[in-house]
Structures are given as C-alpha cells and as structure tokens.
Amino acid sequence: MQDLHREVARTIAAFHHDSGGGDVYVRYAYTRGSGALDLVPAPDLTPLRVIIVRDVPEWPARHYAEGVRLAIPSIRRNPIEALNPSIKGGNYLNNILGLMEARNLGADECLLLNGEGKITEASNSNVLFVIDGAVQTASGESGLLGGLTKGIVSELCGTAGISYHETLLSVDDVRMAAECLITSATREIVPVMSLRLEDGTLLEFPIGGGETTRSLQTLYKEYVKDYQERNQESRLFD
Questions:
Q1: What CA–CA distance (Å, rounded) separates 20 from 188?
Q2: What is the DSSP-derived secondary structure letter of residue 60?
Q3: Cβ distance 150 to 125 under 8 Å?
Q4: Is 19 helix (H, G, I), strand (E, B) or coil?
Q5: Residue 7, helix vs strand vs coil
Q6: Beta strand pairing call for 126-131 and 179-184
Q7: Three-state secondary structure call for residue 218
Q8: What's the pTM value of the predicted model, to 2 decimals?
Q9: Residues 6+ apart with CB under 8 A from 77
Q10: In this predicted model, what pLDDT tens digit does every residue of 32-80 receive, in sequence order?
C-alpha cells in the first residue's frame, strides 16, 4: 500500500507539472499483466498497475441548484450471477447503454433496475430516496456497487438521527418518495428533481433538494473538511 501511495503521489506531481496544479481525480487499476492474447490468463503473468490522474470533473451547476433528472431505461443491470456489479472493474458497457437510453428520454442520468424489477443504481452513482421520513436505498443483494460516499451518508444519518435502510426497493416503493438524491465521490451529494418511470409517469421532487437532502449535503461538507484536517499526513500533494 505504501508503494501504491508513493506512485500515486508521483503521478499527481507529473500531472501538476503539465497542468499547473489544482484538485485532481485519481483512479488506479490492476490488470492481469501482458502476455498472449487469450481469454485464459497464463499462470505466470505479472499484474500491471495503471494510475490515471485528471482534473476533478466539473458537473453542471444546475444539477446542484435544481437537481438531476433520472429515467428508468429498458436496459437492466447485469445480474449478479453473470457479472457481479459489486466488482469495481472497467467494464461499463451495461452502464453506458442504460445512460444512453436515459439521455434519449430527456434525462441526465439513468436509474437501472435488475432482472426482477428492483431498484439498483445509476450509471456511476448510488441513488437514495426519502420515504416516510427515512433514507432508503438499494441493498447489495439487488446487484450494485456499494459506494464509498453512500457509506459515509449512512454514518451521517446515524449521527443526525435520520433513519437509514438498505433494502430491496421496487418501483412502487419509490412512487411514495418525498425526496431523491444521488451520491458519488466526484459528485458528492446531488438532489434529484424528477424520475421518469418506464410507463412514462414523471415523479417530481423538491427543486434543489428537500430538507433531508440539504441537511445531508451540509453534513457531508463538514465531514470532508474535518477528515482533511485530521489526516494531513496522508495528503498526496500540497
């Protein structure tokens, strides 16, 4: 891990040398290594590490001021039995197809269902709902990537006395939602202003987020600031 930390810092330094500095987004991946072009990897391959550094994405300001628009596409999330979505890999074809269809429906982002019609996640974000005063989101058994930011939100809910549940959610469940929000490392917490269901029904949520969404946004910013202050020694660049 120390070796990885050192290499990430070196890559950031090289990126800053060319770009002039600023906050960055880091992604690293391990491949099985170089060798013969074959579906079955040779047993003696040496894994290769790839480190990607780029500027932190700038999401449209209206997404935070008003909210994003979601749509449920006909594309279903990869089933756990075929390619478990909890694997943080580089195969995004399923996500891309869902997002493309959602964009064609006039939305900003998709909300993927699994083969049983249960809620899973967006193309690269977790989706949470406020139902009967509690924050509810899809559980791992639905088939989705857990999400570090969503995990922090669950902790913040506990601290703030907000009920939080990871469960199996159906489309009928979310029809009763008062608020909706998405979470990811680069987006942080973003309100959702509408959700288009497959039958064309449009669910609308508070513009700019409801009370719970706005409260979690504030708590998250405070959490990040406190985390940075407590972990100065782990900084990868100044």
A1: 25
A2: -
A3: no
A4: helix
A5: helix
A6: antiparallel
A7: helix
A8: 0.93
A9: 85, 94, 98, 112, 113, 114, 115, 120, 121, 143, 144
A10: 888 888 888 888 898 899 999 999 889 999 999 999 999 999 999 999 9
Cα(100)–Cα(94) distance, rounded to whole angstroms? Answer: 10
Which candidate, 129, 109, 122, places its Cα nearest to that of 169?
129
The two structure tokens encoding residue 13: 């330094």
Contact 76, 89 (CB under 8 A): no
Residue written as token pair 């608020």: 179
**Segments of the chain assigned to CATH 3.20.10.10:** 61-224
**Cβ of 133: how many Cβ atoms within 10 Å?**
9
Taken in order 220, 225, 230, 235, is the CA torsion positive or negative?
positive
- One-letter amino acid for residue 197 of the chain: L
Q: Please state, in angstroms and rounded to a whole number, the distance separating the CA atoms of residues 144 and 124.
A: 10
- In this predicted model, what pLDDT tens digit does every residue of 83-109 receive, in sequence order? 999 988 889 999 999 999 999 999 999
State CA 176 to chain mean position distance: 23
What one-character DSSP code corresponds to residue 75? P
The fourth-level CATH superfamily of domain 61-224 is D-amino Acid Aminotransferase, subunit A, domain 2 (3.20.10.10)
| 3-state DSSP assignment of residue 25 | strand
